[in-house]
Amino acid sequence: MNVHAPLDAGTDTATAPIREALAAFAAQTDHADIPAQVRTRAVHHMLDAAGIALASTRYDFALRTLTALRGLGGEGPVPVIGMPAHLPPRDAAMVNGLLCHGLDFDDTHIAGVVHPTASVFSAVLSAVHHAGASGRDMVTAYVIGVEAAARIGMVARGGFHQVGFHPTGMVGVFGCALAAGRIFGLTEKQLAHAQGIALSLASGSLEFLEDGAWNKRFHPGWAANAGITAAALAREEFFGITRPYDGRFGLYNSYLGELSKACDLSLATAGLGETWELMNTAIKPYPACHFTHGCIDAAQALAQQGIGADRIASIVALVPAEVVKTVCEPEANKKRPANSYDAQFSIPYLVATPFVRGRFTLAELEDEALTDPAILALADRVSYRADPDSPFPRAYSGEVIVTLKDGTEHRHREHVNRGAADRPLTNAEIVEKYEGNAAMTLARGEAERFKAALLGLDADEPAAGLLATLGRPSA
């Protein structure tokens, strides 16, 4: 097939180039084509993201971002989740994406190593307010965007992190462009161009790991903002790059370098429309980098056996080799996290905390916990090794080996992290997580209205009306 030729309505997504296959999928997938189980899971993922956004509104980064963008663009039609503001579509997408990802508590497509919902949910929330689409349209577009972002991430086989890029920003923009484009009614040709435009908007450095900077928080918001921009340009027949993925200077060759040789381009389209990657997207049980969850679970299990910090001589954490640079290095920084974001990417801190406090929750990211002498003293005794048996990136394994002061050794292994596709949280557990996060900022009745709005989203009614409760009256 000529990759430069626009597709017709009969495009075969199994054999088409990635750009064309994803464009056809986005244009041709109807609401009824998506299994009911997937649609139900979709609204639960959006509920999860909204709960995290509500909890994020308590933090300084939320108000500063809102103030900055409202100062530039003023008010608009799209609600900012849980805050007294309505912004223009792209600004709202930026803030909502930041809120959904602000606590690093949002979902992760494990094999794609991408947080899809924070960006795609924010993009479609803005797009439906702009276009006047229905709740069903929003759910359909959301599923399309998640499928695309997850699959584009899967191709890299975990490579983006290894070269210093954050996949959520790098690949999220493509999913958002397709999701917004679907809501805007783009043709297949326009959806193909939207992906080409999105390549020049893909971004996201991991340099924040060096100093705990806030940059990562806005990566999903930027992906949503940029995806909407790409879709709007494509709607006006703006000509986009023809080979955004596999071109000589396309996504994988430009950003992965030598690691691009390990890419499997077939993963972007294999089973498209039949295997739903949303169902392989993990809901986080802990507010920390997903790479650490296996080790947190292992530490929790050992702590529940009655092993207290005062009895421990040393701890060794086994983590996937591919994530060592992200959650274990530089070792001195990881043992003394300067702020909550440092802590969320610190194996020493995250493994030590359950032995001291019996848990790891948002409370363990407050300043009082970050300076707790007992946690820091135990973190000093935590070292790491690469896990030779890790199934990464299919799952994020973790093993913790504790040597007590009397010389006895205890170990616990989590080969598959809780929340992964092989150990998913139930929809009821997602609701419970939402309720805990929402309770930080909303009265129970208001939190219930939020929940009802999102869980009832898959309806043939205007999405803006269904979601009117998400914002708060402007001050």
Number of continuous helical runs: 21
Q: Report the principal-axis shape.
A: globular
How would you name the CATH homologous superfamily of the largest domain? 2-methylcitrate dehydratase PrpD
Number of strands: 8
Protein name: MmgE/PrpD family protein
Domain MmgE/PrpD C-terminal: 286-455
Pfam families: MmgE_PrpD_C, MmgE_PrpD_N
Domain MmgE/PrpD N-terminal: 20-258
Can you tell me about this structure?
By secondary structure, the chain is an alpha+beta fold. It has two domains: 18-282, 2-methylcitrate dehydratase PrpD (Orthogonal Bundle); 290-414, 2-Layer Sandwich (60s Ribosomal Protein L30, Chain: A), CATH 3.30.1330. Helix content is 49%, strand content 7%. It is built from 21 helices and eight strands. It has helices at 18-28, 36-56, 60-73, 89-101, 116-131, 135-155, 159-162, 167-184, 188-199, 215-235, 251-256, 293-303, 324-327, 331-335, 340-344, 347-357, 367-370, 373-379, 427-438, 444-455, 463-466; strands at 78-79, 86-87, 108-109, 281-282, 312-319, 382-386, 398-404, 409-414. The strands form three sheets. A four-stranded mixed beta sheet has the order 6-5-7-8, with helices on one face. A two-stranded antiparallel ribbon has the order 1-2. A two-stranded antiparallel sheet has the order 3-4. A hairpin with a 4-residue loop joins strand 7 and strand 8. Helix 5 packs across helix 10 and helix 6 packs antiparallel against helix 8 (167-184). It is globular, with a radius of gyration of 22 Å.
